Amino acid sequence: MDRVALTQLLDRTLDAIEGHDPSRLPLAPSAAYTENGQALAFGKGLWATATAGGLSRRAIAAEPEAGQIGFFGAVRENCNPSVLALRLRERDGAIAEIEAVICRGHERIFNPAGMTPRTAFADVLPETERGARAALIAAGNAYFDGIERSNGEMIPVTDDCARIENGTQTTLNKEVGGNPAVPLWGMKVADQIGTGYYAYIEAIRDRRYPIVDRERGLVFGIVCFDHPATMKSVAVKGHGTVPLPAFTQKPSTALIAELFQVRGGKITGIEAVLDFFPYGMRAGWN
User: Fold this and answer.
1) What is residue 195's three-state secondary structure?
2) Which residue segments constitute the domains of the chain, with CATH numbers given?
3) Which terminus has fewer CB within 10 Å in the chain: N or C?
4) For the purposes of burial, counting CB atoms within 10 Å of the CB of 245, is it exposed (0-12), middle (13-18) or buried (19 or more)?
5) What is the pTM of this model?
6) Helix (H/G/I), strand (E/B), else coil: 36
7) Average confidence score pLDDT of the chain
């Protein structure tokens, strides 16, 4: 399928979800659906709770050569707002895979109203700014490696790169902050990661990049962040010892769908949908 056909199939899928009716779709006999890493039957989970008219799309990535398309946006479930990332894989005209990452609320990072269209992610890049598939994936991997090593300098990222997590802007944001002891959310991506604040993250594992949209410079990844809860504070450059927030004080794994826009070899925008689950969880796919 080309990009137009994939987008039409995505539209049909979203309509079927809102209509609580997977029978509307051309599902392959072996089609699989996961929601937050758990295998569910079609018709369960989001398929049963979505409120008609509540789905909105913020960013879309497609890779026709791989038969895959994904989007980041918002949805209403039983009239309550949720944040959603969804990936769809097509094979021989039928839907083979649907993967959903949903956040239904979080004490610090949750703003469904912020999931309005991000126009820059729809830009078709000139050929001179497009990277090879492997190079785009390498940029995403460098971001995760930088977090693991508390080294922002190893990340190919522009100074004006805004990161949006669950609709909340968590870099270059002067209005709000994460930890009141450190103005993290007002910082640039590389500077923020270089503070050492994220030392409480044990590992970023099970990295997958199922969609690489060279035309728009988009890399759709799904990863797991492990938080072992063995630290009560961290040493932050320029701020000394800083206590960690309550959500880091119990073992958990964050399942994260992350979208990078890479232009001319540098990350220019980051979008993420995430939530926290039992420590050591798997994402449900190889």
Assistant:
1) coil
2) 3-114 (3.10.450.50), 123-277 (3.10.450.50)
3) C
4) middle
5) 0.95
6) coil
7) 95
